[in-house]
Amino acid sequence: MDNINWLEMLPTIIPSAVAVIFAVIAYALKMKADSMTGLSKEVSELLLAIYNASKDGALTDKELNKIITEGQDVIEEAKKLLASSGQ
Predict the structure, then answer these.
(1) 1: in domain
(2) For the whole model, what pTM was predicted?
(3) Which residue from 18, 84, 80 is spatially nearest to 52, judged by alpha carbons?
(4) Domain span including residue 46
(5) In a domain, 65, yes or no
(6) Mean pLDDT calculated for residue range 58-87
(7) Cα–Cα distance measured from residue 81 to residue 51, given in angstroms and rounded to the nearest whole number
C-alpha cells in the first residue's frame, strides 16, 4: 500500500469520477420539472457513453466520438431549455 502508482490509476479514476459527477447531475435534473426531461435524457446518454468507454480502460476513437456527440447533444438541449424559459 505504500507504493501506490497514482499515474497508473488515473485512466481508471478520472472516467469513474466523471461518471459519478454526471450521475449526480442526471439525478438532479430528473428531480426537476418536466420541462427538463429532454436534458435529463441527454445527460443520461452522455453518462452511459462515458461509462461504456471506461469499462475496459482503453478509449477508442469510436468511443471518444460517441462521448463528444453526446456532449454536443447535451449542449443543444440546454440551449433549447434556456430559449424556452426566456433567458
Answers:
(1) no
(2) 0.58
(3) 18
(4) 6-84
(5) yes
(6) 84
(7) 25
Q: What is the mean pLDDT of residues 67-73?
A: 91
C-alpha cell at 44: 443520461
Residue 64 domain flag: yes
Alpha-helical (H) ranges within the chain are 6-31, 37-54, 61-84
User: Which of 30, 25, 69, 23 minimizes the C-alpha distance to 48?
Assistant: 23
Q: How many domains does the chain have?
A: 1
Residues 39 and 77 sit within 8 Å (Cβ to Cβ)? yes
- What is the rounded average pLDDT of the residues 40-55? 82
Mean pLDDT of 48-56: 81
| Distant-in-sequence, close-in-space partners of 77: CB < 8 Å, separation ≥ 6 | 38, 39, 41, 42
